[in-house]
Amino acid sequence: MASTKVDIARQVPSAPPADEPAARLLPGEHTLPASWWTSEKVFELEKRSIFNKSWLFCIHSSRFNKAGDYFRFTFAGINFFVIKSKVDNQIKAFHNVCRHRAYPVVRKDKGSSTVLGCKYHGWSYNSDGKLLKAPHFNDVEGFVKEENSLFPVNTHVTEQGLVFVNFNNDPESVIPFDKWFEGLNSELNEFDFSDYEYHMSYELDGQFNWKTLMDGYQECYHCPTAHPGLSSAFKMETYKVVPKNRYCRHYAQIVREEQPESEPEPEPEQSSWFGMRKQAQPQPSPQKKPKKANPGGEFNGLWVYLFPTNGINCYSPAWYSIRVLPVSPTHTILQYDIFTKKGLDEDTKKEFVDFLQLVELEDFNLCQLTQKNLNEGVYSSGYLHPLKERGVLFYQNLVRDMVKEHFALEQAAGKPINPAIISNKKANKDVQELEEICNQLECGSSSGSSELQW
Ligand code: FES
Ligand SMILES: [Fe+2]
Known about the structure:
The protein has 2 domains: 54-167, Rieske [2Fe-2S] iron-sulphur domain (Rieske Iron-sulfur Protein, 3-layer Sandwich), CATH 2.102.10; 177-279 and 292-398, Naphthalene 1,2-dioxygenase Alpha Subunit, Chain A, domain 1 (Alpha-Beta Complex), CATH 3.90.380.10. It has 9 helices and 17 strands. It has helices at 40-51, 177-180, 184-188, 210-217, 223-226, 228-233, 346-376, 390-413, 431-440; strands spanning 56-60, 69-75, 78-84, 91-95, 110-112, 115-117, 124-126, 131-133, 152-157, 162-166, 196-206, 234-243, 247-254, 301-306, 310-314, 318-328, 331-341. The strands form 3 sheets. The chain has a 7-stranded antiparallel β-sheet, with no helix packed on it. A 7-stranded antiparallel β-sheet has the order 11-17-16-15-14-13-12. Helix 1 (40-51) crosses helix 8, helix 4 (210-217) crosses helix 7 and helix 4 packs antiparallel against helix 8 (390-413). Residues 1-24, 256-294 are annotated as: Disordered. Residues 419-454 form the Ig-like domain. One of its GO terms (molecular function) is iron ion binding. Pathway: Amine and polyamine biosynthesis; betaine biosynthesis via choline pathway; betaine aldehyde from choline (monooxygenase route): step 1/1.
């Protein structure tokens, strides 16, 4: 795969490919059934089929300044943290579970420490996950410190510094990152992430299914109706979602300050390249527009949806990430990290954040009310537009395929299969037998077996 940076100096994202003419939906290309937006059973199956097999975006590497810096996350019930190791300065992820009796080792959302002490019985670990001390265990026969490191989580850091994790604990079936998102790297290289710095984060707590948010994210059919600000910043007729390999590239032409040569001068009120009025900015002469101070200040959208639950949205003054964290079938937390262009003035930063938060809040409100109706159980499925909503169809098909494939494996095995589970081969021999009893009693709440009839 080409890793050469593409025209960063110009910061002009590439244009979308041309549409094939006369694309039409075939009969039956509807949304997935609405029950998949409300069912606890389906949610548990999605965890095993999708979330515990996928590469999930967490954070940007620029958030880690020194060894020991860590950030804690919970994704679909899995608690983990990402930390910069003092041993090799690499960014690594670990389950936030003490190897002794499972108390969480990290208790803050973020912090910095090269020694992580468990506050239950005092075991401590280094920033590389290795057990340092287990009080009073020195004399215990058969206890090997090296066999009690924190459970690692598969981690991948991209060239651009995007940190991903994958909970699949079966090395045989983990799809390597570059194959999972084949082609993504060269597209992300159209944007110079190194020219941006962390600005702020915020969170929204949604009473809706994770797919309710993804449905809206994966199309801009709703934008002219629901996002007046966005629609005045970008030419909605040019908005295009192009499915790739487990990701989609979104394209849209920005409404530029400068008009094409053949067109008349712009109206004075279209002063910002967001189409929003800048405060306290000197107005350019209508006769001769000054060159923009920021040459990258007006490029077209470079937005990427990353299956299943993430978005990376690159604008000229800032880029931001979306972490969609499923909590239950009808509860999802949305987390946004915003990175602004280095040296950007505070007014422009604020303008961007206001713009972004307005759009995201508009989406949030759409999701809240949509989910209420999905919960009613009256609506079952809807028809998707072949082009305007092909991004929705694309990701829903991935959901359907992964769920169906995994469900078939579970049916063949006669029990739930959780790819994230870490079995302790050193545990007592009868653990397997005792787990089997539990399986037969359908008591494995963590694996969701109680939700399925076998
Ligand atoms: S659970 Fe952590 S020391 Fe016991
Ligand atoms: Fe939207």
